[in-house]
Amino acid sequence: MTVWVPTAAAIAEIVFFPLATAIVVVRLRRSALETQQKWLLAGAMVFSVLAKVALARIGHNYDVESYRLVGNILARGGSVYANTGRYNYGPIWAWLVAGFGCLAGTGGGEHFHVWIAAFLAIVDVLICMAIASAYSWIGAMVFVLSPIGLLISGFDSQFDNLAVLIGLYAWLQVRAGKPKPTTLIASSICLGISLIVKHILFLFPIWLVFWKPLGRLRCRILYAAIAYGLFAGAFLPWWNDPPSRAGIVQNVFRYSGQLGNSWVGYAIQVFMPMSSLTDLLASIHIIGGLKTLWTGLMVAAGVPLASSGKRELYLYYLMLLCASSPTYVVHYIAIPMLAAAVFFSSWESWAFVAAGTLAILTCEDSGFLFAYHKLSLFTYRGLPPLVIDGLRSNLAQLLVWVSTFCLAASQFCIAALIWKQWRERSEPLVTRSLPAKIRSAAALVAIGGLPVFMVVTKSAVAHWKMR
């Protein structure tokens, strides 16, 4: 990779901001919304961008440091796949962060982080505009003002939303069914680009093979082939370099987070240790036993969903991907936020946003414990150092448990939202009053975190018996 990439990316990024703004302004003016609705939506978009940029100025986490490292490698003309294990995606995001590094320069502060947050904030605005056009303006407002998006795009600066946006554009082109050949190809190219950015939609092309509104079987197979072909082709420039090839295989295709860190994992651990299940599935060597099993279940669940001709198949995919994942971390919460915004009238969506927001705010990895440290300096002033250390340690442990509980609960709430939408297909549900919806949402959060509580109790009892 040559050293001109950061400069070229920086130029493209400078062009992106006014171009995206112009697109949003034109689309908003041409929309069928009432004047008041347009102004409210525009105000929400501006507030969202400013809030995310402000959050980025507070500080950053480990992933932002990884972005800076990746940008520096490209600035030297190196290969990110050969020189670091902290990059697990296609090359597009690496080029983008190299451009942000070029724009931010070598100065201190959070300039680099602010550029990334501003870019991701505009991406969220584009998703908001797409929701307003294809679904509802209230859903668009819910999405752009969601605290989940503000925290994940602003402070955490995770770029899942970029892959979701491009995938959404791909879906909206074919959503109505029976697309023209040129539209089908354009959509498949968009989906392939989404996979290169971040392979969130890695099983969605398979789902679409069974989605008959896309066209004849050969057209559906061609669609999937183009998307997967683009994704695979993105790595060809590095494939002949042995260190880069080894890095791609290890850090992209074989990458996995902490398996079992999900409501599914905690539910399993109530009955058996996750290590025992991993050993039981050790004979499956493809991408790891549990991941292979989960992939098979995702495909098996997607076939009946797609075969039934679900019009919102894309939203179902985003929800099921996160609801069933054996690995679930805080920034994954932003992935199904699009679906939660579209289905904003469901109390399951409210429960998801509430639990997800609290999980992010209390998560140590996200960096938001900075608020706890500042609070500690004020609250504990005048106390002996040993007492302060003990109080800080206890508070930190409490926040960790709260975050773990709420993270599992948010994942469970998305599973409940899928079930709700599936049931509404066949039978109308009873409309509930607002207090009843709030009580139901609170109960859903509690049920979702129950596996975490049971695992903690189980561990505490085992520890007590050992004493």
Describe the structure.
By secondary structure, this protein is mainly α. The chain has three domains: 157 residues, no CATH class; 76 residues, no CATH class; 215 residues, no CATH class. It has 24 helices and no strands. The radius of gyration is 23 Å and the shape is globular. The model has no long low-confidence stretch (mean pLDDT 84).
How many helix segments?
A: 24
Contiguous uncertain segments of 5+ residues: none
Residues in helix, %: over 70%
Classify the secondary structure makeup into a structural class. Answer: mainly alpha
- Proportion of strand residues: under 5%
Following the backbone from N to C, one meets helices and strands in this order, namely HHHHHHHHHHHHHHHHHHHHHHHH
Number of strands: 0
Distance between the termini: 58 Å
The overall pLDDT, averaged over residues, is 84
The outline comes out as globular
Q: What count of structural domains?
A: 3
Radius of gyration equals 23 Å
Q: What's the main sheet like?
A: none
Label this structure with key terms.
467 residues; 3 domains; single chain
Any chance you could write out the topology, listing elements then pairs?
Layout: H1 5-30, H2 35-56, H3 62-75, H4 80-83, H5 91-104, H6 111-134, H7 137-145, H8 147-156, H9 160-174, H10 181-197, H11 204-209, H12 217-233, H13 236-239, H14 242-253, H15 263-271, H16 274-280, H17 289-307, H18 313-324, H19 337-342, H20 347-361, H21 370-379, H22 385-426, H23 434-448, H24 450-466
Helix pairs in contact: 1-5, 1-6, 2-6, 2-7, 2-8, 3-5, 5-6, 6-7, 6-8, 6-9, 8-20, 9-10, 10-12, 15-24, 17-18, 18-22, 20-22, 20-23, 22-23, 22-24
